[in-house]
Write a structure and sequence with these properties.
- The structure holds two protein chains of two kinds.
- By secondary structure, chain A is an all-alpha fold.
- In chain A, 80% of the residues lie in helices and 0% in strands.
- Chain A is built from eight helices and no strands.
- Chain A has helices at 2-16, 18-51, 59-87, 96-102, 105-133, 138-165, 180-193, 196-199.
- The longest helix of chain A is centred in the first third of the chain and has 34 residues, at 18-51.
- Chain A starts with a helix and ends with a helix.
- Chain B has 13 helices and twelve strands.
- In chain B, strands 1, 4, 5, 6, 7, 8, 9, 10, 11 and 12 form a ten-stranded antiparallel β-sheet that branches.
- In chain B, strand 11 and strand 12 (343-345) form a beta hairpin.
- In chain B, helix 5 crosses helix 11 (205-225).
- The longest helix of chain B has 21 residues, at 205-225.
- Residues 12-36 and 355-379 of chain B have low confidence and may be disordered.
- Classes of the chains: A mainly alpha, B alpha+beta.
- Chains A and B meet through helix 1, helix 2, helix 3, helix 5 and helix 6 of A and helix 1, helix 2, helix 3 and helix 9 of B.
Chain lengths: 200, 379
């Protein structure tokens, strides 16, 4: 019993430091999901660059700019998500009624982005765990992979969703309108890239 | 909405530790003593550590951090992969292949039955001259434990059943890992999940990068070496690849392809299997570009009529058009271009690598004794 008490104390102590490092996990989850989405974004960027009336000698010449479009977009979204999680805290006294009264574009788009991208990010983690364990035991690898995915979704995806939903109210209704197409596009790509649907 | 849910959402993330645990409102489940910010600390720390590690290893964000640390500590950055490697298409370093193709070797006319066929065989030997990957070294050591005379080609031949791509992949990654990646690609809706370019995304980053360096490069080289000639029957090379005096512009320009003097209406054949893109402009006239995959593309210009459409998949030797005299041209001919990565290579050199009669669609095909052709044969 003394050991259990010590473990609980250690757990409490670690938990109290969560505000310092917790947001890092949530942001990392979104970065992973965004990267999965951007993995196909460079292909679409290449198609767009080839469609434009620019004098490309071949698609190969346009491949590098297309890759940089995806890189810049991914890093920009990652920085923006980190800033949203790091600089804002859920507001006390938040209610759905208050949200409906003052919701801006950002407040609708952000959850719509968060859900599929965190799903994609947690799938990436699950896949990585499975790849690590499977060489030793394939069944254990599969179980641990799916289990890790569920765990990451619960501890980081869900809590992060609550954090972004209950953030401080925007100053005007159009806040976030510039980033809305980017976020919604990435969430669509994340859903498309996610192999989950084939398992269902 | 229920007051219980509303109560939880009023303090939606006590997990962040910034608020006290929610107060009991008198409805629903009474919160436990350790509810809210004081639970799952160690578990959350472990989960966050795994996520941060994955970001560091698998994403460009991690690559930026790597470079920042290397720059701050003065460590060399040469060994770090470039940011664009995270979005590689799996073609390998297609531009580096052009140097190899400047002096391509002659393919073997015969290969042992059941062995990796040409041109993959020659392509593997050329690529592995630059270094043998770790997985292949281990496989060779295992083979040499039972047969000290075993070579790397023996290992690859043992892996080959009927798919050269699979044999090359199994040199780098385990069969189980490959099967998992194919299953994930299939679940994501890929049409040909067994192809390297379809399932490489679902491999661990380290295996993906290693695979691109070997598999992508070998497949690109093999695709280039396997190209066939677009015209059957006898014809003359009216203008070779390389610098020349432009007949229309009257100035020295680089000729990025080879001109084959053929009359209007000559059937034009696909040099290899691939996906078609068509178009028309004032310079190239009516043209067809075929993407053969792995960074290799061929172009057929100044056509009279085109018999395929955008997005069509063609087979090797399939008729795709009739030659013509459209665009900026001084006479009926086919302008044939071979692109590997972002640069072009001399199609005539590739043609001479083929030792078998499979290359020429007609045994009587000749290049003529044109001095222009003799220039093209110069090393």
């Amino acid at each position: 019993m003394a050991i259990v008490q010590h473990v609980r104390k250690a757990d409490d102590w670690v938990a109290q430091s969560r505000p310092i490092w917790g947001w890092l996990g949530q942001a990392g989850l979104i970065v992973l999901g965004t990267h999965l989405a951007c993995d196909s974004l460079d292909d679409y960027a290449l198609d767009l660059l080839m469609w434009l009336p620019l004098q490309w000698s071949s698609p190969g010449e346009a491949a590098a700019p297309a890759a940089w479009v995806a890189i810049v977009l991914e890093l920009t979204v990652a920085a923006w998500v980190v800033s949203r999680l790091w600089l804002t805290y859920p507001q006390p006294g938040w209610t759905w009624t208050r949200w409906k009264r003052s919701a801006a574009v950002r407040d609708v788009v952000l959850p719509a982005f968060w859900i599929p991208v965190s799903l994609a990010g947690s799938w990436v983690i699950g896949m990585a765990v499975e790849d690590f364990v499977a060489p030793y035991n394939a069944v254990a690898g599969s179980i641990l992979g799916w289990g890790t995915m569920a765990l990451v979704l619960w501890r980081l995806g869900w809590t992060g969703l609550m954090a972004v939903i209950a953030g401080p109210p925007a100053r005007n209704r159009l806040a976030g309108v510039w980033i809305a197409p980017i976020l919604l596009g990435l969430s669509g790509l994340a859903l498309a890239e996610l192999p989950l649907w084939g398992w269902l | 909405m229920s007051r219980g849910l509303d109560e939880r959402l009023r303090n939606p993330a006590p997990w962040l530790g910034s608020q006290d645990p929610p107060r009991y409102s008198g409805r629903g489940r009474r919160p436990t003593k350790n509810a809210g910010s004081r639970r799952f600390g160690v578990l959350d720390a472990a989960v966050v550590a795994i996520v941060v590690f994955a970001v560091w290893v698998q994403t460009p964000v991690g690559a930026v951090v790597d470079r920042f640390i290397a720059t701050a500590t003065g460590a060399p950055t040469d060994g770090l992969p470039p940011l664009t490697a995270y979005f590689d298409t799996g073609d390998g370093d297609a531009d580096a292949l052009v140097e190899v193709l400047a002096a391509p070797p002659t393919l073997a006319a015969n290969t042992p039955p059941g062995a990796l066929p040409e041109p993959y065989r020659t392509a593997v030997q050329m690529v592995l001259k630059d270094g043998v990957p770790r997985g292949a070294r281990q496989a060779l050591a295992t083979a040499q434990a039972t047969n000290p005379d075993a070579t790397l080609m023996d290992v690859i031949d043992a892996l080959f059943i009927d798919d050269p791509e699979a044999a090359l992949e199994l040199l780098i990654i385990s069969p189980e890992q490959r099967d998992r990646a194919i299953a994930r690609a299939r679940a994501a809706g890929a049409q040909t999940p067994a192809r390297w370019q379809a399932h490489r995304t679902y491999l661990p980053m380290r295996d993906r990068l290693a695979g691109d360096r070997v598999v992508g490069k070998v497949l690109g080289l093999a695709t280039a070496l396997d190209l066939t000639w677009p015209v059957a029957g006898p014809h003359r090379v009216s203008s070779p690849w390389g610098h020349r005096h432009h007949p229309v512009l009257k100035k020295r320009k680089f000729h990025n392809g080879i001109d084959l003097a053929v009359p209007i209406g000559t059937p034009i054949l696909a040099a290899q299997a691939g996906v078609v893109r068509t178009g028309e402009d004032g310079v190239s006239g009516r043209y067809v570009v075929i993407d053969h995959g792995h960074g290799v593309r061929t172009s057929y210009c100044h056509l009279d009529s085109i018999g395929v459409f955008d997005g069509d998949r063609v087979t090797p030797g399939q008729q795709i058009a009739f030659s013509g005299n459209t665009g900026r041209s001084t006479g009926p001919h086919l302008h044939f271009v071979v692109r590997v990565g972002r640069t072009t290579t001399d199609p005539a050199r590739l043609r001479r690598t083929q030792a078998s009669a499979r290359l020429d669609h007609s045994a009587g095909s000749t290049m003529g004794a044109s001095p222009v052709m003799d220039t093209a044969t110069a090393p």
